[in-house]
Amino acid sequence: MTLALNRSELILKLIVEQYLLDGQPVSSKLLADHAQLAVSSATVRNTMMALEQQGLIRSPHTSAGRIPTTAGIRLFIDKMLQLQPLTSMWNNELQRRLTPQLPVSLLCQQAGQLLTNLTGFVAIVSAPKADGRIVRQIDLVRLASDRLLLVVIDEDGDILHRVLHCESAIDSNTLSKVLCLLNAALGGGGQWQDGIERLGSIVRSETGLCQQLLQKVLGQLSLDELQQHQPLIYGQHQLLLAPEYQQNPALQQVMQMLEQPDGLIRLLQTVTQDEQPKLLLGKESGFIELANVSVIVQRYQQQPKRFIALLGPRRMNYARLIPLVEACARQLNLNLNRRQVSP
């Protein structure tokens, strides 16, 4: 589809496209030589001056050329950007790596890792588990006289397995008793968090080796519950490789936000109210830490609400990356729906 643009819009489009390509200021001479423009350098300069007065482009201190502002990139994306079809290589990777047989947690992990591997940017996936997680099965398997394997399976098919090392040998009676107490606290399709609270009360009423074992189980269950409710973030180190951020103090602010992402996660939860991809450009996010980055985010499940996002420099190839995030969210949604309807 060919967009009908006036001269001012076309010049802005060319400036943004060139800037996204190489990150360098764009000169009026370069634009005047462009095949799509049949005007003089003076006309280009006058148009660029008008665009600058509108706040759509600006002049860096060290160059006579112009680069787009956040407002200029936003206008380009909203009105002029033409999305590219997903490449067959990327589509094949999504189909191969994101399969419905995977438990939910592993599916989310695969999606985040795949997104950062394909793009070289930071991938963010909302917490794999939502409140109300259900325990389907819990068991203790003897590995040795002083070692047990804790196995917990939730309703999504995710399996927690941890080796418990004990200070002394565990007799069969103690093992049977501990297993009965665990099933009383967590069995019967109860919620994980409620089971942890019941188990905490049981621990306080027991003594000796039985209490020690229950405390070890409680610690593992609590740790897993905490981890499953944290967002998954991949590729933070990729920011260190981006030319825009080398020796740039702004990088430190972004890295700190990714280490403590509660505010960012709340923002992404807020903007993903429908099935359409959303793009946050720099200061549009409301966070000064994100002034020099862009975030593409899309919801892939409504209940519980889950989203996937890609964070990188403002100089992204939006035409390729927005369809990739869309396709990744679509594949996740498809696989989760298949799991729900399967017998």
From TrEMBL:
SUPFAM superfamilies: GAF domain-like, Winged helix' DNA-binding domain. Keywords: Repressor, Stress response, Transcription, Transcription regulation. Belongs to the HrcA family. This is Heat-inducible transcription repressor HrcA. InterPro entries: GAF-like_dom_sf, HrcA, HrcA_C, WH-like_DNA-bd_sf, WH_DNA-bd_sf, WHTH_transcript_rep_HrcA_IDD. GO terms for molecular function: DNA binding. Residues 109-322 form the Heat-inducible transcription repressor HrcA C-terminal domain. The keyword Chloroplast does not apply. It comes from Rheinheimera pacifica. It holds the Pfam family HrcA. The lineage of its organism: Bacteria, Pseudomonadati, Pseudomonadota, Gammaproteobacteria, Chromatiales. It comes from the Bacteria. The keyword Transcription applies. Negative regulator of class I heat shock genes (grpE-dnaK-dnaJ and groELS operons). Prevents heat-shock induction of these operons. One of its GO terms (biological process) is negative regulation of DNA-templated transcription.
